[in-house]
Every structure is written in C-alpha cells, then in structure tokens.
Amino acid sequence: MHSFLRKAGYVLANMVVMVILHGNSKQFWPKIPYLSLRNEGTPEHMRLLLHTTTIVTAGQALIGQMPRERWLPRAIVLGLIPASLPLLLFFGQKVLRLQGQAAEVYNLALVPILPIASTLLEDAITGSLAAIDHAPEDQADYSHLV
Length: 146
Known about the structure:
Helix content: 55-70%
Radius of gyration: 20 Å
Low-confidence stretches: none
Strand content: under 5%
Distance between the termini: 53 Å
Shape: globular
Largest sheet: none
Order of helices and strands: HHHH
C-alpha cells in the first residue's frame, strides 16, 4: 500500500508541476523563466516534460523520498520518457489521425499516462538492477588453468 501511495504521489506531483509550468493565456500566476513552456512545439513539450520530472525528482530527493537504488533508474527514465513524446504525438496525429477535440483529449490523457509509465519503467529497471546485484557468482574453480 505504501508503494502505491508513493507512486500516486509521484504521478499527482508530476501533473501539478506540469500544469504550473505549461501555463496558458488565462493563468493567474506568472510564467516561470526558462522552465515554463514558450510555445506549443514538440521540442518545447519535451523540455517541459524533462523539467517537470526533474523538479519532482529534486523535490523527492530534498524530502528524503528518493532511495539510492532508484537514482540510476530515475536518470534513465528522465531521458527515455521525454524522448518518447514525439513518437506518442506522431502516433496520435498520423496513425490514429486524431484532429480537433479528439486530439486535445489524447494529448491531455498523456499528462497522467506519462508519469504512470515512468513509475512502471522505473520499477522494471530497479527490479532488473536488483536481480543483477543479487545474481549468484560463478563458483567454479578455475585455479587449474593458471
């Protein structure tokens, strides 16, 4: 249950930070220099996604909620998730041929889906690294070869 709550908190924090950084013409708070979205282009959204995840990760580290065994997996996720955004947008625009309201719903659905995918990918990487660390060493005796 504790793991689920931690993951839900991570997803929620990502969503809140993304909304704050994304901004729009009707927001009542000022844009944050360098971190906020400058235009609606795909590279800007990739940058926004990277900044969002980095801010949440830094926040987790500052409050002691980022275990050491998660640092490398999170660093990998920080690179992979923003890099996947152009593929996801291409899929929605060219493969599914979404336009108008349907495209907007698809894009908004990515806001919670990407942090959820981040947690799943991070768990998979953490599990793989833990399995490698706990793999038994080869106990064969090769002294006769020397």
